[in-house]
């Protein structure tokens, strides 16, 4: 019963909420302070695996729903032809860069700062971090909107875009990144809530958005009744509408004072920006390196032609499907590690990190083996062109078995971030970039290698990434001297 109560509290509890409560709560109703105490006790003393799954499950389920939106969008775009698929393949890594920088980059900094503040009993600082996160979201969101608008044509040409594929990429990109600021605000506010242990509200916002977006996207793409056919631009518009609405819902919730954190205007403090950015910037750089790897590999594939680009695009999209699954685990481990580090429980933080990392390895490794054996299960969702399927199958048969390395390394990296350490995850991401992108370009440009050799370099980079991240486990969780 106690564990069940802890799980309920973790799903929507208010860790660190120090507002006064009535001395006597209505019968059968658990007070906010009781929920807070139960949730914090579970994180600090409860069974690690059960607590981890209690925190992670809502986020994993809802992020899988969000992933279903991305899969559905690619499915719809497939009806527009190979040029449209190739165009999306060029833009998708840039969009995922923004998503990973906001969720797992600066978002990690926000969640880590909130978790450490709450673990140390600094509730006012935790609330103030919310406003500082919104300021950062506006700055970084504007940078993505302007950067893709001005630099998009040159970037997509460099990635192999030409003729119809280039036109599709530019149209999709312009509509998609017009809503960059709402994307950043939503992701950083959700990160703050998760850092406080409140995973229920961000999960519900994402789930409702997914349920709305899946039918809305084809209506805008293909037209329906009075709604005109917008083509590939409709997919970008649908994302913008969703994130705009989600932004308003989250901000309203966080200004109401009913949640674990309260959004309000406060004087800007350099100390709080530094607390976010000391983890957020290096972690965002790691996200940049991860996505730069995909972008450069996409450019190398572009040398093989439009069909190879389309095949790689739908195959490598599965690489990104691993990210939401891992991110759901990572949001839980980051919060648990951060709270335990804030409370001085370094040994327990280390055990949490190892347990969660092995869970990540098992989940992604299993998916990778299934897809490597049966690549058509994934590829035929998006295309039936034999040349596209052949290129995609070659990639998945070689890379998918290495997803286990991605799962292990990714979760370890977030564990280290929760403890405030980012050096070894940075080294691991840099090594992955050098092997996959650098080695891949050399293999294709100088040795005339095909998709198989390029995919082998990507697989080797994931194994090296996991090995180096393992070093972080021993470096990040040393007891204080």
Tell me what you see in this structure.
There is one protein chain. The chain has 481 residues and is an all-alpha fold. It has one domain. Helices cover 81% and strands 0% of the residues. The protein contains 17 helices and no strands. It has helices at 2-12, 32-45, 48-78, 82-119, 123-158, 163-177, 180-195, 200-222, 232-255, 270-302, 306-342, 346-373, 376-379, 386-399, 403-418, 423-445, 451-476. It is globular. The protein starts with a helix and ends in a 5-residue tail after the last helix. Mean pLDDT is 79; it is low at 1-32.
Blueprint of the fold:
Elements: H1 2-12, H2 32-45, H3 48-78, H4 82-119, H5 123-158, H6 163-177, H7 180-195, H8 200-222, H9 232-255, H10 270-302, H11 306-342, H12 346-373, H13 376-379, H14 386-399, H15 403-418, H16 423-445, H17 451-476
Helix pairs in contact: 1-2, 1-3, 3-8, 3-11, 4-5, 4-6, 4-7, 4-10, 4-11, 5-6, 5-7, 5-10, 6-9, 7-9, 8-9, 10-11, 10-16, 11-12, 11-14, 11-15, 12-14, 12-15, 14-17, 15-17, 16-17
The H/E string reads HHHHHHHHHHHHHHHHH
Largest sheet: none
- What is the first-to-last residue Cα distance? 39 Å
Classify the helix fraction into a percent range.
over 70%
SS strand fraction: under 5%
Radius of gyration in whole Å, from Cα? 22 Å
Number of strands: 0
């Amino acid at each position: 019963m106690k564990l069940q109560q802890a799980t309920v509290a973790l799903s929507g509890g208010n860790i660190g909420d120090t507002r006064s409560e009535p001395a006597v709560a209505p019968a059968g109703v658990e007070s906010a302070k009781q929920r807070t105490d139960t949730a914090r006790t579970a994180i600090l003393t409860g069974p690690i695996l059960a607590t981890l799954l209690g925190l992670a499950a809502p986020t994993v389920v809802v992020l899988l729903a969000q992933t279903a939106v991305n899969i559905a969008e690619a499915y719809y775009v497939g009806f527009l032809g190979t040029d449209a698929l190739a165009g999306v393949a060029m833009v998708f890594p840039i969009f995922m860069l923004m998503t990973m920088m906001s969720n797992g980059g600066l978002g990690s900094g926000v969640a880590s700062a909130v978790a450490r503040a709450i673990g140390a009993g600094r509730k006012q600082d935790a609330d103030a971090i919310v406003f500082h996160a919104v300021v950062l979201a506006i700055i970084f969101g504007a940078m993505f909107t302007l950067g893709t608008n001005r630099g998009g044509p040159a970037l997509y040409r460099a990635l192999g875009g030409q003729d119809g594929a280039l036109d599709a990429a530019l149209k999709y990109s312009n509509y998609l990144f017009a809503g960059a600021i709402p994307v950043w605000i939503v992701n950083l506010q959700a990160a703050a809530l998760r850092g406080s242990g409140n995973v229920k509200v961000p999960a519900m916002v994402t789930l409702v958005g997914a349920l709305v977006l899946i039918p809305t996207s084809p209506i805008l793409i293909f037209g329906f009744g009075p709604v005109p056919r917008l083509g590939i631009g409709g997919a970008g518009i649908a994302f913008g509408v969703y994130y705009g609405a989600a932004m308003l819902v989250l901000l309203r919730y966080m200004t109401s004072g009913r949640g674990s954190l309260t959004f309000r205007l406060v004087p800007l403090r350099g100390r709080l920006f530094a607390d976010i950015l000391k983890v957020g910037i290096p972690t965002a750089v790691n996200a940049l390196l991860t996505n730069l790897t995909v972008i450069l590999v996409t450019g190398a594939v572009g040398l093989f032609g439009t069909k190879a680009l389309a095949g790689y695009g739908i195959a490598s999209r599965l690489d990104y499907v691993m990210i939401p699954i891992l991110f759901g685990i990572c949001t839980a481990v980051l919060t648990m590690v951060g709270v335990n580090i804030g409370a001085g429980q370094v040994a327990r933080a280390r055990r949490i990190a190892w347990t969660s990392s092995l869970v990540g390895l098992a989940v992604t490794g299993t998916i990778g083996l299934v897809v490597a054996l049966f690549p058509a299960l994934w590829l035929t969702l998006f295309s039936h062109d034999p040349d596209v399927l052949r290129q995609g199958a070659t990639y998945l048969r070689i890379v998918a078995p290495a997803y286990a390395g991605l799962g292990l390394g990714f979760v370890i990296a977030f564990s280290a971030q929760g403890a405030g350490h980012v050096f070894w995850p940075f080294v691991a991401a840099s090594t992955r970039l050098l092997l996959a992108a650098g080695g891949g370009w050399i293999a294709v440009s100088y040795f005339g290698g095909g998709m198989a050799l390029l995919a082998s370099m990507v697989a080797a980079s994931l194994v090296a990434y996991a090995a180096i991240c393992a070093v972080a486990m021993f470096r990040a969780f040393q007891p204080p001297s």
